[in-house]
């Protein structure tokens, strides 16, 4: 006989041992019937849930969910976005005392026997998402999971629950095997690497020179446990974590000198970077420390600690993201200085991260000539404590004077190139007109039906994503599998149907991209979409959201009211989101009307002038319908708020790789002269590239694609 407790919705908790529970999220309704009678004798339906493992399997393996949830790349719709007020109300209703922290609420862990609790309040509830983490047992889960646990405790009048109560998602055999392999790899690399202090002095100096860290002392390197892996001449940066401070992973950092004497750092992590959640340096922080400096890389952390004595931690993926799962570890600090690097990207990231950390305790080191990244500051002989003292409080005032703005203005003037945004590697012509892709802007994109809007934007966004721009796709028209297939083809620059043996190679690389998909399909409510975007920005530091397309948010029922008024409202909502979240939104819109022989213009999209004002950039995929060049597409920029430049350039479509390229001038001319049959157009009137051009581009792109995103595996520091 199994006793069960019915929880919210279709979830339930089965008691299958004296203190063993099995948490099942989607319990078949037939079984719930048994539960409502209070007792469940193992019904046949249950075997289908538990297959292929026996319940004992689930119970004997504590589910290690701690470091794997972010491997998901599809975003579920947050069904009930929770607010901090609701969380507090709930806790009060259960008489649970809490401490109101910076990013989390802290409560006593419910997974530790009260008589043996060392720390009070070691369970952290994220104020934005409701997710929780118990730092003592590393049990974590959603807000719903926590509520379930609390309900069970109350119903059963228990003082605490065993940590293995949340057994909902067991790892598959493959996942376990992979984790086992990773752990072995970590151990193997760690044990075959040499502690820095065991190296002969001349070799140690050579390595330090290679990494431009000659000013970092051996004592500092030893303190952080850094080793050298001789076969690849990489620094081994350990990840110690958990209540027993055991070795959980490693980062291998290698350095390469470029022709221009810059050092390029390449990094690889085990476990792979999507599950690598190490705040490097955390193991050295004591629980009484109240101040910390957060840096964008491990060597910066060494520099800060050595030069100032202030505890410092490095973010696992540099400036690209601050995963919320790390926030509980930063709750103890009353003052957090964000010194993420010496460029504009680090500055922008520090402003965004300070919102997650709680503005009032954060101060930001503004990059500039005299404020390079910490390692460089140390090697230049700067006073790092002075730089930190000059950091700016993150909490901004609503009214500022020019005195407060002058440094920002100066920063923009000396870094014009960085301010112009991230450049596309595949679309130089777009760089020429738009100058780059910038945070906080709204790009509206249109083109005739079936002209290739999705295909084009997919490549445009992929290009940025490959450069470390965290991207979220909302594809309402075509499903995520089809979209991912298009992107993967564009990424690999080849038809994978014909090269299936290459699939895993490309898929492995593609998986490393910071790319997420909303799980919506068909008509959606704009509020739900915005909530999901908000959630994604918080969880994954999304910098670019692509919405394909606006028509899927218009709703059928509104067709009788002014359609364009609804459209304007939606555009306004996206505009506001882009500004408030410092996130770029690319919004695909079907044109208002299509007149066969006329090219589209800004007015073809918008209902009113107000809406066109909201967009920072307006891009139109023009389709030439004239006889000489049927099927030829051009990209026209009709609005560019950044510097006003507008223009148009032709695009050739390469069918095998689903990519677009700017035709070479000579070839372009030839096409106009020779007409359809010799232009290389295919039987559908679509332009195919010459073999030579395709080969060339493919070669160039492969070079670019084999490279993993710079923010993930490569940090160009100087
Ligand atoms: N420049 C092009 N020339 C020829 N075919 C193209 C071109 N661009 C895309 N295609 C192909 O046309 C088809 C439709 O492309 P896509 O879905 O990107 O168009 P769309 O404009 O987004 O369509 P819709 O208006 O339905 O949203 C796809 O099979 C794609 O491979």
TrEMBL record:
Residues making up the signal peptide according to the UniProt record: none
Source species, domain of life: Eukaryota
Segments of this protein annotated with the region Disordered: 670-718
Pfam families linked to this entry: AAA_25 (PF13481)
Membrane topology: Peripheral membrane protein
SF4 helicase domain sequence ranges: 416-667
Example GO BP: mitochondrial DNA replication
Gene Ontology cellular component terms for the protein in this record: mitochondrial inner membrane; mitochondrial nucleoid
Molecular function in Gene Ontology: 5'-3' DNA helicase activity; ATP binding; hydrolase activity; lipid binding; single-stranded DNA binding
InterPro entries: DNA_helicase_DnaB-like_C, P-loop_NTPase, TOPRIM_DnaG/twinkle, Twinkle-like
Membrane-spanning parts: none
UniProt entry tagged with the keyword Transit peptide: yes
Keyword match Repeat: no
Reactions catalysed, as given in the entry: ATP + H2O = ADP + phosphate + H(+)
Class in the EC hierarchy, top level: isomerase
E.C. designation(s): 5.6.2.3
PROSITE patterns: SF4_HELICASE (PS51199)
Keywords assigned: ATP-binding, DNA replication, Helicase, Hydrolase, Isomerase, Lipid-binding, Membrane, Mitochondrion, Mitochondrion inner membrane, Mitochondrion nucleoid, Nucleotide-binding, Transit peptide
Cellular localization per UniProt: Mitochondrion inner membrane; Mitochondrion matrix, Mitochondrion nucleoid
Record function comment: Mitochondrial helicase involved in mtDNA replication and repair. Might have a role in mtDNA repair. Has DNA strand separation activity needed to form a processive replication fork for leading strand synthesis which is catalyzed by the formation of a replisome complex with POLG and mtSDB. Preferentially unwinds DNA substrates with pre-existing 5'-and 3'- single-stranded tails but is also active on a 5'- flap substrate. Can dissociate the invading strand of immobile or mobile D-loop DNA structures irrespective of the single strand polarity of the third strand.
Protein name, as recorded: Twinkle mtDNA helicase
Lineage of producing organism: Eukaryota, Metazoa, Chordata, Craniata, Vertebrata
């Amino acid at each position: 006989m199994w006793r069960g407790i019915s929880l919210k919705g279709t979830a339930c908790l089965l008691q299958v041992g004296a203190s063993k529970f099995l948490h099942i999220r989607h319990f078949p309704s037939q079984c719930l019937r048994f539960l409502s009678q209070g007792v469940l004798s193992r019904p046949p339906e249950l075997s289908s849930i538990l297959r292929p493992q026996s319940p004992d399997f689930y119970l004997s393996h504590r589910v290690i969910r701690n470091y794997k949830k972010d491997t998901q790349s599809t975003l579920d719709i947050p069904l009930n976005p929770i607010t901090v007020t609701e969380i507090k109300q709930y806790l009060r209703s259960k008489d649970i005392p809490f401490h109101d922290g910076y990013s989390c609420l802290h409560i006593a862990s419910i997974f530790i026997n009260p008589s043996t609790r060392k720390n009070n309040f070691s369970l952290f509830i994220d104020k934005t998402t409701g997710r929780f983490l118990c730092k003592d047992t590393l049990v974590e889960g959603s807000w719903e999971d926590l509520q379930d646990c609390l309900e069970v405790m109350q119903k059963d009048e228990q003082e605490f629950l065993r940590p293995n109560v949340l057994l909902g998602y067991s790892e598959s055999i493959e996942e376990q095997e992979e984790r086992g392999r990773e752990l072995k790899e970590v151990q193997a690399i760690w044990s075959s690497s040499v502690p820095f202090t065991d190296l002969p002095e001349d070799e140690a100096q050579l390595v330090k020179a290679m990494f431009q860290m000659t000013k970092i002392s051996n004592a500092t390197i030893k303190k952080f446990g850094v080793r050298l892996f001789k076969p690849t001449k990489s620094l081994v940066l350990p990840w110690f974590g958990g209540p027993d401070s055991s070795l959980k992973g490693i980062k291998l950092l290698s350095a390469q000198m470029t022709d221009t004497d810059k050092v390029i750092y390449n990094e690889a992590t085990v476990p792979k970077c999507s599950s690598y959640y190490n705040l490097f340096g955390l193991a050295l922080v004591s629980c009484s420390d109240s101040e910390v400096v957060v840096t964008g890389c491990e060597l910066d952390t060494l520099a800060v600690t050595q030069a100032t004595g202030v505890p410092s931690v490095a973010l696992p993926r540099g400036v690209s993201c601050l995963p919320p799962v790390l926030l509980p570890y930063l709750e103890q600090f009353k003052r957090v200085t964000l010194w993420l690097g010496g460029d504009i990207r680090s500055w922008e990231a520090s402003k965004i991260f300070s919102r997650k950390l709680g503005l009032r305790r954060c101060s930001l080191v503004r990059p500039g000539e005299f404020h390079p990244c910490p390692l460089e500051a140390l090697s230049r002989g700067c006073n790092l404590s002075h730089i930190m003292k000059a950091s700016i409080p993150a909490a901004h005032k609503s009214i500022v004077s020019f005195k407060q703005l002058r440094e920002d203005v100066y920063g923009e003037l000396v870094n014009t190139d960085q301010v112009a945004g991230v450049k596309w590697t595949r679309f130089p012509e777009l760089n020429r007109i738009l100058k780059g892709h910038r945070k906080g802007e709204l790009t509206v994109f249109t083109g005739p039906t079936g002209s290739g809007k999705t295909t084009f934007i997919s490549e445009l966004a992929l290009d940025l994503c490959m450069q470390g721009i965290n991207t979220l796709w909302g594809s309402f028209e075509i499903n995520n599998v089809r979209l991912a297939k298009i992107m993967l083809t564009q990424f690999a620059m080849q038809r994978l149907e014909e090269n299936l043996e290459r699939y895993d190679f490309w898929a492995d690389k593609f998986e490393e991209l910071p790319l997420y998909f909303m799980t919506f399909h068909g008509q959606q409510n704009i509020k739900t979409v915005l909530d999901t975007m908000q959630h994604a920005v918080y969880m994954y530091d999304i910098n670019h959201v692509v919405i394909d397309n606006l028509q899927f948010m218009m709703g059928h029922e509104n067709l009788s009211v002014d359609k364009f008024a609804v459209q304007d409202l939606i555009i306004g909502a996206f505009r506001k989101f882009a500004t408030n979240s410092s996130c770029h939104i690319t919004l695909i819109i079907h044109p208002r009307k299509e007149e066969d022989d006329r090219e589209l213009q800004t007015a073809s999209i918008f209902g009113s002038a107000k809406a066109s004002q909201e967009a920072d950039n307006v891009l139109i995929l023009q389709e030439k319908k004239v006889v000489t060049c049927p099927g030829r597409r051009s990209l026209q920029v009709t609005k560019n708020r950044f510097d006003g430049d507008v223009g148009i350039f032709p695009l050739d479509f390469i069918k095998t790789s689903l990519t677009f390229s700017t035709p070479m001038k000579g070839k372009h001319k030839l096409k106009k002269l020779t007409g359809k049959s010799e232009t290389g157009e295919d039987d559908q009137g679509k332009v195919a590239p010459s073999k030579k051009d395709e080969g060339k581009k493919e070669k160039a792109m492969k070079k670019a694609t084999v490279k993993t995103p710079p923010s993930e595996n490569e940090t160009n520091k100087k």
